[in-house]
Write a structure and sequence with these properties.
Ribosomal Protein S5, domain 2; RNA-binding
Length: 110
RNA sequence: CCAGUUGACCGGGUGGCCGCUCCCGCUUGCGGGGGAGGAAAGUCCGGGCUCCACGAAAACACGGUGCCGGAUAAAGUCCGGCGGGGGCGACCCCAGGGAAAGUGCCACAGAAAGCAAACUACCCGGUUUCGGCCGGGAAAAGGUGAAAGGGUGCGGUAAGAGCGCACCGCGGGCCCGGCAACGGGACUGGCAGGGUAAACCCCACCGGGAGCAAGACCAAAUAGGGACCGCACGGAGGCAACUCCACUCGCGUUUUCGGAGCAGCGGUCCGGGUUGGUUGCACCAGGCGUUCAGCGAUGGACGUCGCAGAUGAAUGGCCACCGCGUCGCACGUUUCGGCGUGCGGCCCUACAGAACCCGGCUUACAGGUCAACUGGCACU
């Protein structure tokens, strides 16, 4: 999957559709690229640097196992929250699947 | 064996599945290799490097450092020593220049806090209504305080006092040892000179500023700027810059006077800036080993190794087993402190994530290992 790297992409996704969960917040918006893009945000409020890194890595691993769920032509942003640090990996996967499927129909197309 | 001191170190391992980033190779999507820390942290010092400023030097101001000697690129770091303080000891701690250049401050308590004075009590004389009062002497005793004008003892005296003497302390010059800080010795003075410089200050030494978001390079879209060319464009003068006249607009009741404008369109090129990309960017005060010099910090010689380079930021995610720790239960053992075995639970790990690079300092850290030394107890 394509990784989001530029600030403008994150801002555009933040203005799109949104879904809240216990482990993370999911944002998504349509984009010009043909494939699906994914970005991760973990703010400083969540924890110190090693904890934030660990949350991002677990989210990345969960996304890699659920590639089929993501629609093409769309940018997704995952905002990690602290429970994602301690949760069972299965729970994380399940929550991700539910939220993506719930959010997909709500994303406006270009 | 118990208690302790100092120094050094580790800070999970193996396997499987799925991934990230950099480098190299070629058959261009595969193969091989590298990939977090002792503090990567705080950003407190010192450098390298980059840009800016600057003729040089000195002085002043400001900031920093502060026993002596050495190490180092340098430092507020390190090593060795000196002095003071603490501990039975190994050892630890010290913001450790100057209070006789000057100024300031010393709360509360206390009679008195800096210049010598005297509250209670003491001694002598006088007086008395026998409670005291007056004059003089003295600074030993009590009490206050962080600190009360050297300390202890003897002599001395009306009572006392460095008033005299001995020892200790202090000051002074002299001699000896040491590169020095400083130490030792005899002599002498005769107690004077309270503390505070993390109060101002004085003395000595050091110091341009900002930082890799430094700095260098490349470049799309949009808006605007400049130059040139073409078309177009009132007149006159001038090589040209431009000047004058006419025209239009504004202010004004009007005139005079004053002010502004005199173009536009198209093309090419240039420079600036936002965003993005490339570079800086990883082989250097380098690590390890041996050896030599040195008490040591460290330095020399020789050999050997190649050691992260991300940029919404890689270096991992999940599972299994092992190991470690801890808690509970059962059994055995015991010098009643524990120890061993088995089963189960928890954590499967503390502090913490490179961001230009080094040398330090400081702070955080579950658990564990090793070495040297000290004080006990027991045994030989």
């Amino acid at each position: 999957m394509r990784q989001l790297r530029q600030r403008a992409q994150f801002v555009r996704a933040a203005r799109g559709s949104k879904a809240n969960g216990r482990f993370f917040v999911l944002q998504a918006a349509a984009c010009v690229e043909p494939d699906a893009g994914i970005g991760y945000t973990v703010t400083k409020r969540v924890g110190n640097a090693p904890e934030r890194n660990r949350i991002k890595r677990r989210l990345r691993a969960a996304v890699r196992q659920s590639t089929d769920l993501f629609r093409p032509n769309t940018d997704y942003v995952l905002i990690g929250r602290r429970p994602a640090l301690y949760a069972q990996f299965d729970e994380l996967l399940e929550a991700l699947g539910q939220m993506v499927q719930r959010l997909n129909p709500a994303i406006p197309t270009r």
